[in-house]
Write a structure and sequence with these properties.
InterPro entries: Tscrpt_reg_HTH_GntR (IPR000524), WH-like_DNA-bd_sf (IPR036388), WH_DNA-bd_sf (IPR036390). By secondary structure, this protein is mainly α. It is built from six helices and three strands. It is elongated.
Length: about 140
């Protein structure tokens, strides 16, 4: 018997009312638990059907999420054996999250520049956001 809690318990609630599509929410949740080391390399993931049933989403939604994670090198599939966390899944998940953070920061920088803020004002805004209780 595995000591790892079920994926359903590790994932945040998946909801049509939450930001992003259902498959994006699954991707985000799996990246988080893999990057935090809650799933070790070569850990088996639930089948499409099992996870779809647990999360009450369609099999196609889970399949799409798994395909995206496989494309990013975070998980891998073995024909007839299942889906597993890749050996570098934790590193790849972290790298993807850092790339997304960079993208968000670039977008925030563009928005601040378009708002007419100077580089100094942007830097102050960033520090105020990073340390909201310091100001």
């Amino acid at each position: 018997m595995s000591n790892t809690p079920s994926i359903k318990l590790l994932l945040p609630a998946i909801s049509p009312a939450a930001p992003g599509t259902l498959y994006e929410q699954i991707i985000t949740g799996l990246k988080r638990i893999i990057s935090e080391g809650l799933l070790e390399p070569d850990s088996a993931l639930p089948s499409f059907r099992q996870l779809a049933g647990d999360l009450m989403v369609s099999v196609i939604t889970v399949k799409r999420a798994y395909e995206e994670l496989e494309r990013e090198g975070i998980i891998y599939r073995r024909q007839g054996r299942g889906t597993f966390v890749a050996a570098r899944g934790q590193d790849r998940s972290r790298e993807v999250k850092i790339a997304q953070a960079r993208s968000h920061l670039r977008n925030a920088l563009r928005e601040a520049t378009e708002a007419g803020l100077s580089p100094t004002e942007i830097q102050q805004l960033f520090m105020q956001t990073l340390h909201p209780t310091a100001s």
